[in-house]
Design a protein that fits this description.
This protein is mostly helical and 538 residues long. The chain is built from 28 helices and no strands. α16 runs antiparallel to α17. The chain is elongated. InterPro entries: Sig_transdc_resp-reg_C-effctor (IPR016032), TPR-like_helical_dom_sf (IPR011990), Tscrpt_reg_LuxR_C (IPR000792), WH-like_DNA-bd_sf (IPR036388). Pfam families: GerE (PF00196). Keywords: DNA-binding, Transcription, Transcription regulation. This is LuxR C-terminal-related transcriptional regulator.
């Protein structure tokens, strides 16, 4: 059952009933025992606090006692929503039962709370559009209900923050940022910490994606303080800020520190709507270790978790962007290009599909196409998300270097160094082949750079993989292996190569392995890099 504002009692909608003598929606219930929830909890306690304890106290009573009390049913619904083991289906059953009982005898905030819990429950099931609509109903009801002003403001704040969380997961980043800012500034000191921590975590995620790492770090720090003070370890409300904490460490190249956070992410996200984000951050950490196949497995788990969602929005885009990045590294250009073309492009290029396309073109040696791919990013200027713009500058520099335009390459690379050093970012420099990065770093060391940029150059020079020597070229490639190598460089799959050469896929796989062995490579990307270093790509 779903109760809209038009079916709510008059003390919630703020209107008088058309017929004061009209019968109630249900028979008047008899006196209820006061020891089911004694003292009677307010809406915050029903929705967020001590839910396991409330469930135990309620279920100790005979069924007929608590099953006719809407407040008890709402508390039970909340206990299956905001618990260490969330169960949205059971929560929905109790919400439906509570809605069927609520009438003019019940406090108005109970109706608003029902709308809030129902919106949160829809979110946990991946029904983000329905959840967003429910937050609008709850906000309007909280604004118009005949309840004390402080309670009305608190309920409005909770509804607005809930809408911001829904908009975040839908990928409507600017709207989400405005709603979260509004809701968190409207909340009062009485608002429960779990709601505050979840809102701060989603705000941190927005700031991270929109390229404002300092603001993201500040929000993560505040969320961590509130979570620690309120003993929320493992609570689903902590998942967003922990995800961002791990992503910040990965962006800075501190993989071990990020890995130490991943387990906490999973403890909080498991079984909730944030579980796909848990898979995403795990895949990101594995990719940072060059464990490409494990990263792809984690992304497959993420995709499986999103299948039941009506509109995965942001989470689907995060999945596609990371999977495309891993496939590019593996030399799987065709599948990567398909993923890139379906990525949603927001107005600020927060995920920036163009940078992925440019990476793909640089990996294939087409530097002109790489520049064309990121030309819209350059044209966007300051409206481009700052973080992904560092990637754009690095790729712009690599492409110009490949075309022999040393001045343009130096200008873009210096700009990338400056922004990356100020924002504690390392990952953008891994988006170009190591041999190109070594060249860019060597040229940068010759220039008079600001101290922070020069320090970053030295750090990156130590981290970039060492140049492969010609002595590691195990043995010359046969004529057939040279043909297979050319197909590998072109991004063709084993099945495509076998079709063109009219041999079995197993034969091609054997020849590909032989090419890898002779080049001293372990995957497509390394094979292409090694072939270029040996002058075999002409």
């Amino acid at each position: 059952m779903s109760i809209g504002a038009e079916t709510m009692p008059s003390h919630v909608t703020g209107t008088e009933p058309a017929d004061a003598a009209a019968p109630k929606r249900r028979a008047k219930r008899g006196p209820l025992p006061q020891d089911i929830l004694d003292p009677a909890p307010d809406w915050r306690e029903l929705s967020l606090t001590e839910v396991d304890d409330a469930r135990a106290r309620i279920l100790q009573q005979p069924d007929e006692r608590w099953s006719s009390d809407p407040s008890a049913l709402l508390a039970l619904a909340a206990s299956y929503r905001y618990t260490l083991s969330p169960n949205p289906f059971t929560a929905l059953a109790y919400l439906d039962a509570a809605d069927a009982l609520l009438d003019d005898d019940d406090p108005a905030e109970a109706f608003v709370l029902s709308r809030l819990l129902r919106a949160g429950n829809a979110r946990s099931l991946g029904r983000l559009e329905a959840a967003l609509a429910g937050t609008g109903t709850a906000e309007e009801a909280a604004r118009s209900a005949r309840i004390a002003l402080p309670v009305s403001i608190e309920l409005q704040a909770a509804a607005i923050v809930e809408s911001g969380i829904c908009l975040t997961l839908l990928g409507r980043l600017d709207e989400a940022r405005a709603r979260l800012t509004h809701g968190m500034r409207l909340e009062t000191s009485r608002w429960h910490p779990a709601g505050h921590v979840e809102g701060l975590g989603c705000y941190a995620l927005l700031e991270f994606l929109l390229g404002h790492p300092a603001a993201a770090r500040a929000a993560v720090a505040r969320a961590g303080v509130h979570a620690g003070e309120s003993v929320l370890a493992g609570h689903l409300s902590t998942a967003p800020y922990l995800v961002v904490a791990a992503l910040i460490e990965l962006e800075a190249g501190r993989v071990e520190k990020a890995e130490s956070i991943v387990d906490a992410v999973w403890d909080a996200a498991n079984g909730s709507e944030y579980e796909p984000l848990g898979h995403f951050v795990r895949a990101s950490a594995l990719a940072s270790r060059a464990r490409w196949h494990d990263a792809l497995d984690a992304l497959q788990d993420m995709q499986l978790g999103l299948r039941a969602w009506e509109n995965p929005g942001l989470l689907r885009s995060l999945h596609d962007a990371l999977r495309a990045s891993v496939l590019i590294t593996q030399g799987e250009g065709g599948p990567a290009r398909q993923l890139i073309t379906r990525l949603h492009e927001d107005e600020h290029h927060a995920l920036c599909p163009q940078r992925l396309l440019a990476r793909l073109e640089i990996a294939a040696g087409d530097f002109t196409a790489a520049l064309e791919a990121i030309e819209p990013c350059i044209a966007l200027g300051d409206d481009h998300a700052p973080l992904t713009h560092v990637y754009v500058d690095v790729l712009w520099a690599a492409a110009h270097d490949g075309l022999g335009d040393v001045h343009a390459a130096a200008t873009a690379f210096d700009r990338a160094l400056d922004a990356a050093a100020r924002n504690d970012s390392r990952r953008p420099f891994a988006s170009v082949p190591p041999e190109r990065l070594r060249r860019l770093l060597a040229e940068a060391r010759k220039r008079d750079l600001p101290e922070h940029s020069a320090r970053l150059v030295e750090q990156l020079s130590l981290e970039v993989p060492a140049e492969q020597s010609g002595a590691e070229f195990v043995s010359p490639l046969s004529a057939r292996e040279r043909i297979v190598l050319n197909h590998i460089i072109a991004g063709h799959s084993a099945r495509q190569i076998s079709a063109q050469l009219r041999v079995s896929p197993n034969t091609i796989k054997t020849q590909v392995r032989s090419v890898y062995r002779k080049l001293g490579a372990s995957n497509r990307h390394e094979a292409i890099e090694r072939a270029r270093s040996f002058g075999l790509t002409g």
